[in-house]
Structures are given as structure tokens and as C-alpha cells.
Amino acid sequence: MKPYLAGIKSYQHELGIECAAFADPRLEPMIPRIKRDHLEPERQIQTQLTQPHLLLLLRHLSRANYNDVATRAAFTLAFAAFLRVVEFSYKQRDLTLGDAFPKWFLTKGSVKVQGRGAYIELTLPSSKTDPFRKGIKLTIAASLDNPCPVCAMEEYLTRDTHRPYQAPLFCIGSLEQEAFAREYDIHKLHGVASRAGLDYGMWNAHSFRRDAATWAAQVGISETEIQTLGRWKSDPYKAYIEYSDTE
User: Fold this and answer.
1) Cβ(214)–Cβ(242) under 8 Å?
2) Domain 51-195 belongs to what topology?
3) What are phi and psi of 102, to 5 degrees?
4) How far is CA 73 from CA 37, 70, 92, 144, 233, in A?
5) From CA 134, how far away is CA 131, in angstroms rounded?
6) Which residue ranges make up each domain of the chain?
7) Longest dimension (CA), the chain
8) What pLDDT is attached to residue 174?
9) What are phi and psi of 86, to 5 degrees?
10) Residue 19 in contact with residue 12, Cβ under 8 Å?
11) Are 54 and 79 a contacting pair, CB within 8 Å?
């Protein structure tokens, strides 16, 4: 229940709404009482998408298939940049925005591979933490291993020379160019996870962002650094990090 309250507080804070009610001393004692009166539903087991899991997924994406190459680039970028699924997916109606589309969504022009493949400059034109759409620029370094987001992006852009810079960054089908939708992303994630033998638990739209934070904590990155990497303005990000029972 506390993560939900923290999420509401964060949302109100970003909207500039007064949050004093969350500091009311009567709130904390109420939570156990609410839990006693309302039985907590059985939680679904969630499979953590740590880097080793991501590596397994990538082994089941073919480099001969355009959609798999696009998916590899999307998955590795989302994990490395702590992206929300809405930041790298689209709805079909989004494609009708015309000249306004690049002001809201990732396009091919949002990505620049720099330093001869040493890093990517990714500009998010619109984000939950950027309500005025000033643009957020992220620098993502190459890891030069199998889940390297820079290598995956370079491979994808090499295959995708036929589309203009104002086109969506990710699409389905080299010719059809359908929107890389949220539903497609989750469906693809489930399908690849099943082929990789990771079909237990639950995978969802938050897996990349949530589990990137968990993996970062597991390899020793501080919570302050995780907050910066994930572009969180307040402490609800802590609810994303899942520590093992041995820690």
C-alpha cells in the first residue's frame, strides 16, 4: 500500500499539487487497519529482468529478422536508459500527428551514435518528468558485449536507412512500418521469454524500468545514482528496487 501512496504523492508533486496530507501523523497508523479490514490479494510472482535474463532473451532474437533487430535495439535501450514503455512505444493514432509527432515521441532523429560507436545521445522529447517538453538528453555508453545498446542501435539503424529522421524510432515491419505499440512490446517480451525458458512469473510494461533499477542496486550502484539514472524526482523509485532475502 505504501508504494501506491508514494506514487500518488509523486504524481501530485509533479503536478504542483499540495502534498501536506501525506505528512499527516494519522496516516501511518491507518495502513495496518486498512490491511486487516481488506484482505490483501494474492500477488503474482514477478520474474526479474536482470541483465543475465536480458542476455537470455537476446539469444532468441534473430539478426536476420527486421522485427527482431528492432526489438533487440528497443529492449537493450529500454534497459540501459531506464525507459518507461510509453517512452519507446506508440499508438496508431500517434502517427497522425504530422509535424507535431517529433515533439512528443521518439523518432530516428532522437538518436545519435557518437564517438565512432562509443556512446549514444538519446533525446526524450516528452517525459513524465519533463511536463513542459523541454527535452531530456541521455548519454548511454557502449558496453561492447551482447546486450550493448549502442551496438544494437547501430545494427538497427544500418537496417533502417529507408525511413526519414522524423519517423518513429521503432516500427514493426521494414515496409509496413506499423507502430511499435505497447501491446506488441509486451507480447514480444512474453514470446521471447517463453522461448528462452523464462515463461514463469509475470512480465509487464514496467519490467525494463523496474528491473534495471533492481539490477543496478545488485551490482553496487547507490540509490542516489539510481534515482539520477532513472530520472526520478522523489523517493518512490525505491519501491522499484527488489532486494533479495539474503541482503
Assistant:
1) yes
2) hpI Integrase; Chain A (1.10.443)
3) -65, -15
4) 46, 5, 21, 14, 27
5) 8
6) 1-43, 51-195
7) 60
8) 81
9) -70, -15
10) yes
11) yes
Helix (H, G, I), strand (E, B), or coil: what is residue 233? coil
Are the beta carbons of 178 and 171 closer than 8 angstroms? Answer: yes
Q: 49 pLDDT exceeds 90?
A: no
For residue 15, the SS3 value is coil
Q: DSSP string covering 174-185, please?
A: TTT-EE--HHHH
210 contacts: CB under 8 Å, gap ≥ 6: 49, 240, 242
Q: Which amino acid is at 200?
A: Y
| CA separation for the pair 171, 181 (Å, rounded) | 8
Strand partners, 10: none
CA gap 99, 110 in Å, rounded: 15
Minimum mean pLDDT among 32-36, 125-129, 152-156, 174-178: which range?
A: 32-36
Which triple of cell numbers denotes residue 92?
Answer: 496508431
Q: Which CA distances in Å does 181 have to 17, 96, 150, 177?
A: 31, 14, 22, 11
- pLDDT digits 0-9 by tens, 53-100: 888 889 999 999 999 999 999 999 999 998 888 889 998 888 888 899
What is the SS3 assignment for 138? strand
- 106, pLDDT greater than 90: yes
